[in-house]
Design a protein that fits this description.
The protein is α/β, with parallel strands linked by helices. It is built from nine helices and 17 strands. The chain has two domains: 191 residues, Quinone Oxidoreductase, Chain A, domain 1 (Alpha-Beta Complex), CATH 3.90.180.10; 125 residues, Medium-chain alcohol dehydrogenases, catalytic domain (Quinone Oxidoreductase, Chain A, domain 1, Alpha-Beta Complex), CATH 3.90.180.10.
């Protein structure tokens, strides 16, 4: 089969197009899926450059050349690795004894696939990091991780844009307990996760204030934001019951200041920098709660699948690319030229 292999940590030159990759053979309990569409995400780039290593402390766009051994989600990445955590695909073959998934079904799955153990109840394997993902013609997925979306009115491209962004966003909102009683501040609101969070929070009845550049403010308002503030503006203090942050960096302390007493902050990203400075007195004197959100319980992704099947949510897909043009797609992604999602088509 053809696909893109990551052969080491570094720049886009580490992404190698290969038309002689063996078609993967499903293990017991797995399904072979033909990839129809696969979104581009920050985690793809973070893994490629080794950003998850503790030795890296800069923003995603400012890492430069790295020399790390354990730069993936769970430590060392086994190379060559086929990345791609967003999947919309068609079932090609089903292992004997597998039930509930049939050949020809259109399917999707979570990027962070839960596999809890007694020692680690939040253990998961990430598609495209711990196991080969969707940046190829075919991939194998455990049947327990797959969801049938054959009846969804959304297109293959739209579904292929959703697992990481919408799954992450919904998990953030669920962990923070967002409801119609909340006023929510969402950072990075024009990106994939941020825009999904705006849409989902608005759907839950919350009042949404979003942080975005002026050039993308209209797209953020269209997704459901009542107010949009600029990236260089400090959010008003003690004005929000919830903050959803996927940016991190120097502004993190001001997000805690923006919370009302008893407020909640959920974080699942740090593209502006993972090492932040804050005043712990703000956390404990205001009785704030901070949620770190990576593990996605199956019931959360099942909620997203229900919305996908109903057509109740729809991503903004700004651009599509042939899979072979992955370097251009990632360049456009990091340049922040477009709001919403970019999608690769095998």
């Amino acid at each position: 089969m053809y696909g893109v292999q990551l052969v080491g940590h570094g720049g886009p030159e580490k992404l190698i197009w290969n038309e002689q990759i063996p078609v993967p053979v499903p293990a017991t309990g797995e399904v072979l899926v033909r990839v129809l569409a696969a979104g581009v995400n920050n985690t793809d780039i973070n893994t490629r450059i080794g950003w998850y290593a503790k030795a890296v402390s800069g923003a995603t766009h400012d890492v430069g050349d790295v020399d790390v051994e354990s730069g993936g989600w769970g430590g060392a990445v086994r190379f060559p690795r086929i990345q791609g955590g967003d999947l919309c695909g068609e079932v090609v073959s089903v292992d004997e004894g597998v039930s509930g998934i049939d050949t020809g079904m259109r399917v999707t799955c979570a990027i962070n696939q839960p596999m809890p153990t007694p020692a680690n109840p939040v253990y998961f394997e990430a598609l495209g990091s711990e196991r080969d993902g969707a940046f190829a013609e075919f991939c194998c997925v455990p049947v327990v991780q797959l969801y049938d979306v054959s009846d969804s009115p959304l297109s293959d491209i739209e579904i292929g844009a959703m697992p990481c962004a919408f799954g992450t966003a919904l998990n953030l909102l669920v962990r923070a307990g967002v409801s119609g009683n909340d006023h929510v501040l969402i950072t990075g609101a024009s990106g994939g996760v941020g825009l999904a969070a705006v849409q989902l929070a608005h759907q839950r009845g919350a009042e949404v204030t979003a942080v975005s550049s002026a050039a993308k403010a209209d797209a953020v308002r269209d997704a459901g934001a009542a107010q949009v503030i600029g990236r260089d503006e400090s959010p008003p203090q003690e004005s929000f019951s919830v903050v959803i942050d996927v940016v991190g960096g120097d502004a993190f302390g001001s997000l805690l200041d923006a919370l009302r007493p008893g407020g909640r902050l959920a974080t699942s990203g740090a593209i502006a920098g993972p090492v932040v400075k804050t005043d712990l007195r703000t956390v404990y004197l205001k009785d704030l709660t901070v949620f770190g959100c990576t593990y996605q319980p199956p019931e959360v992704f099942a909620q997203l699948v229900a919305l996908i099947r109903e057509g109740a949510v729809r991503p903004l897909v700004a651009q599509t690319y042939p899979l072979r043009e992955i370097a251009k797609a990632q360049s456009d992604f990091t340049s922040k030229r477009y709001p919403g999602k970019l999608v690769l088509l095998p």
